[in-house]
Write a structure and sequence with these properties.
This protein has helices at about 5-65, 65-80, 105-110, 125-140, 160-170, 180-185, 215-220, and strands at about 95-100, 105, 115-120, 145-150, 175-180, 195, 205. The chain has about 230 residues and is α/β, with parallel strands linked by helices. It folds into 2 domains: about 1-65; about 80-220, Glutaredoxin (3-Layer(aba) Sandwich), CATH 3.40.30.10. Helix 4 links the parallel strand 3 (about 115-120) and strand 4. The longest helix is centred in the N-terminal third of the chain and has 61 residues, at about 5-65.
């Protein structure tokens, strides 16, 4: 073979090799670009899916709040309790007037969120004076937790007379008189009647004339009005 032909063949081979290399490089680049694009698409889809899951979980959490559910259940349970005048009953609606002229309802007392102890007294009742002296020893420890009200049971006694009785014995609680049919509605038939209900308005303690003592009343207050 002549030198000229040999030179031509070498040049042709070089051209073929160059074209082959370019073809391989081009295929590799295209494949790499396609792989990168596919990977990026997968990552984007995963991010979107994760955001969607988080949104669903957040929505479920808000719509099914345990505290809201418990509150509704508690309210329904209280509403199902029979209104009456004995332990375990919901206290009937009533209204009283404080010594300063403020009118208070059973509803407002319950909304206050504290247990309520009502003592139905008369200034001329020796049993009331004795029991109120015992309560005076017990109650001050619980002034921040319990609402204690001395309610005048004798319709002939004025508010002024009840206040003087309170001041004479240094009673640390509020004095009140019943309004409307409160005495009849609560079936209070004598002085020295004790009626107490918890923060939900359910009667947890009731005693009649001369019944109860310092230990009983202290235990009721220690239990935050939830009974014994």
């Amino acid at each position: 073979m002549s030198f000229k032909k040999l030179y031509g063949c070498i040049n042709f081979s070089i051209v073929v090799l160059i074209l082959l290399a370019m073809s391989v490089f081009s295929c590799t680049s295209e494949n790499e670009i396609e792989d990168i694009t596919t990977a990026s698409k997968i990552v984007d889809e995963e991010i979107v899916a994760e955001q969607t899951i988080n949104e669903i979980e957040t929505a479920d959490y808000v719509s099914e709040s345990p505290s809201d559910l418990e509150t509704d259940q508690a309210a329904g349970l209280i509403d199902s309790i029979l209104v009456g005048t004995q332990v375990g009953n919901r206290i009937p609606e009533f209204k009283i007037i404080y010594e300063d002229g403020t009118e208070v309802t059973s509803t407002s007392l319950i909304e206050n969120g504290k247990p309520v102890f009502m003592y139905f007294a008369a200034s001329w009742c020796p049993g009331c004076t004795r029991e109120l002296a015992e309560l005076k020893e017990v109650y001050p420890e619980f002034t921040d937790d319990i609402v204690f009200i001395s309610v005048g049971v004798d319709p002939t006694e004025t508010m002024s007379e009840l206040v003087k009785y309170k001041e004479r014995h240094s009673h640390p609680w509020t004095v009140a008189k019943p309004l409307g049919q409160m005495i009849a509605d609560l079936k209070v038939t004598s002085q020295s009647t004790k009626i107490a209900f918890n923060s939900a308005g359910v009667i947890t303690y009731r005693d009649g004339y001369g019944k109860g003592n310092r230990e009983v009343w202290a235990k009721w207050m220690e239990n935050e009005g939830e009974g014994f």
